[in-house]
Known about the structure:
By secondary structure, this protein is mostly beta strands. It has one domain (10-90, 112-136, 192-429). The chain has three helices and 18 strands.
Amino acid sequence: MARFELATSCSQSRRDDRTTLHPELFKIGCKLSVFIWYLQIFVSFFLAIVFYVTFVAIIIAVMKSTMRFWGFIVLLFLSLPNGFAQLNNEVFEDRFHLIPERKDYLYFYLDNLNFSKNNEYFNKIVLGRTYFGYQLSPSLVYYPAENVRVQAGFYAWKDFGNDEYSKVLPLFSIKFNKDSLSMTIGNYQSGLSHRLIEPLFEFERLITNRWENGLQIQYHKKHFYADIFGDWQVMIYDNSPFQEQVFAGISAYYRIFDKPNFVLQIPLQFVIQHKGGQINTGQQSLINTINQAVGLSVEVKNISHFLKAVRSDNYWVGYQGVEIDSLEVQTDILGSGMYLNLNFDTEMGNIMFSYWDAENFNSAQGGYLYRSVSRQDSTYTEKRRQLLILRTMSDFKIAENLWLTLRFEPYYDFQNQLFEFSNALYLTYKPSIKIARIKKLE
């Protein structure tokens, strides 16, 4: 785990008898300081919500009589507290639908992703790289009941310029639901389907880590949604020379207003990666990397034929790294940032402006651009990361279930005075074909 010079980090060994502070008192004081840090954040965010809701109510009242629409949009964006961003990645998301009409039927399903992504990066945090190839996930899907879905198949990843397949894996999942609750075990709806923000989840994992394995529970009501998942990434056995790794989290929102032309919701996200184990060998440190994000999301829809919607997603984002070594020395590292976004959904595609400002921020699976720790050299850190990102994103429907996606994402790094960009082309094809009806034996 990379080290930052933070006043909020705590480190104390139970075997260090040179200190005049009692070890137990030190631990209590350390935990108290962390608790106060979180309490300050919670109080600040609560007050921000009260201020924001009051402010929006006043603005709406004034708008009805005197304010022009675009003045409202500008003031609305400027009033938002620290924030959340959600890219429109619907064409890439997994959706394991439970369709009652398909009971007793067997279907063939294909998930095909073709990609060409080029990152022209020359900074010390993350170097540029190119992804160019395709991925196939053919499978059979059977619906034994109206609320049950069973899927089995395989996944293959092929990079152009490489004669071998980069990865081939079996796929299997069972999903069932009861009222508003559903559960999937096996290869669940993973990756971008969680709709985690980029500082918490790297977009490129769509290519490099396509499927997750474990358990997913989803709860969906009119005003509330929660996606709870656990991805078991590395399994250990007796005397394994490495650690187990688990990535788990929750992505949820509470919708305050849900009108045809106006949506206001509070998103909440929490993820943790655990590296540890008790039956493995070695003296590796136990490491927990924790991130949380909370904010407000506002969307104004049905504006005009060309401008379909304006959306502002904003979040406060936190980081806590916990490391306990073989001598029981515990180190807690804290960091945080804000993520402000304004998205224009037009007839030609999406235009999105993002601003990221963070100190001592790190994550286990978040975007590398947002971190303070270098991807290629973990000893190199930048305490503050301050980025302004422009994203142009267009999805074109070529045929049924076939989509072409184009993206261009330049950004400016204020701290290093760098201008860099990435560009990408994706072709996704996800057909579903009915094969036969399976007659059950009486």
